[in-house]
Amino acid sequence: MRNLRVLLIIFSITLLFYGCEEKSNPAAADVSQYRPANPYPPDGAVRIDNLVTLAWEAEDADSFMVLFDRVNPPVKVVKPVVEENKLSVFAAGSSTPYYWQVVSLLPGGYSVAGDVWSFTTKDNTPDPGFIIKKHLMFTVPPNKVKILFQVVDLNNGGITNLSTGDFIIYEDGESIPDYESNVAIAGSPNNFKLKTLLMLDNSTSLTGGPDNLPTIKNAAVSYVNSMFSQEEIAVYKFSSAIDLVLDFTPVTGQGNIINAVNSLNYGAPSTNLYGAVIKGASELTEIYTEDIIEQSVMIIFTDGDDTQGSRSLDDAVNAVYGKYVYTVGIGQAINPYVLSLIGNRGYYFIDDSSVLDSVFNKIETDIANLANSFYWLEYSSPKRGNVEHSIHLYIKNNPANTHLEGTFSSAGFFDPVPGIYFSSSFINPQGIDTYYLKTDGTAVSINVTTYGNTTGTASTYSWGTNPSVNINFVKSDGSLVEVNASSAASVGQTITMAVKDNITGFSRDINFVIY
Questions:
Q1: In CA terms, which of 5, 214, 222, 375 is 20 to 30 Å from 462?
Q2: Judging by DSSP bridges, how do beta strands 45-48 and 86-90 pair with one another?
Q3: Which residues constitute the domain of residue 387?
Q4: Same domain, 510 and 490
Q5: Both 170 and 244 in a single domain?
């Protein structure tokens, strides 16, 4: 009896152990419930639109990873984590086959891969169309809706030649006439800033030999010599380790950038290419505000492949997803397949210095198109009251069925008397005519706006002068200034100054009281 009791205890512990293991390791159980199935488009489908929403079925998965490529099996990860059972992708080209695979991501870091599916795009597609990316949407007094957006092609290249007439806007499902709402859509290159990260291979382990480093340095210097006026460049080097040589520096420090590149010596015999890609990608940022658009690109110069193996190619490809990366291969030891996957904006091979100019012209053209692919939409909404409204923006005759959508509230919208207003807001539509300045020199910020400018030209402002106040033009058009009392000011003094809109001719006085 005692032996039987011991056997029963052991049997119970064994069942408990295997039961827990099955719950904690889904991959150890029947994986059919996790495996993605029933794809759309169906496997082998033909004449599929260039813009297509991939869809599939899978039970119990937390999320998914999607691979999408022109090679079979696909290796390019288009999105490492997808929460839904669908993902929109862009399949460029006419009669072009594509391959895709979905991987179910399970608790505990486990995964179950589905089959590889394929489809072929439509025949004779003359123009694949454009994609609209929304970056900012907000409202400003008195009733303005403003949207910063970007237009790119299906390969994520910038589209630069669009104007107001190329778009149609729907507010709450109804089109907005240009003439009634003063609709204006214009490019926004003036406040664009580009941050370029040069990642330079200085390892010695490559079969190309020790003569490749001077070629890499010369190529990098050639790029620096043609940098944009709105560009800042940072320099990194990598062999076994990845080191910052020079942080982001504007064109006024171009000589310092060139010196940083020329200072490179040979590093370790191990090449941590994938680690360098991941580090560089982490430094690429995007900033979108009303006053500044900042984007980043990375250009990798290398003469070989990753030899360290501390990070994987998948890690590197996932790190550059959604970022702008170019790869420049130099010498004979390069791996074109790897560099083409990492360089999602372009891979270039340089076999001699004579092709440097043509390569960098292509990169510079691509970057210039990126800089000029941003647009501001601004219009006066007729809506009033504390109500939420929808807006949809379409490109006319766009083969790709994409659009921009968003919502805004018309709370506080009002109809002003035409003229100049100081720091007008929805809370205080009339603005402020009198400002108080401390004698200690503390500055106050003042926004200037013209309501009723129908000229089609943005307003610029001229300010009067007075020895008792100092005016610092934060914006060159005079629409934003900082004002403080000068040493000549005296307590109790009131200064009246005229501000004029140079475009409309409107003028208004502003008062400063010294205290």
A1: 375
A2: unpaired
A3: 130-189+373-409
A4: yes
A5: no
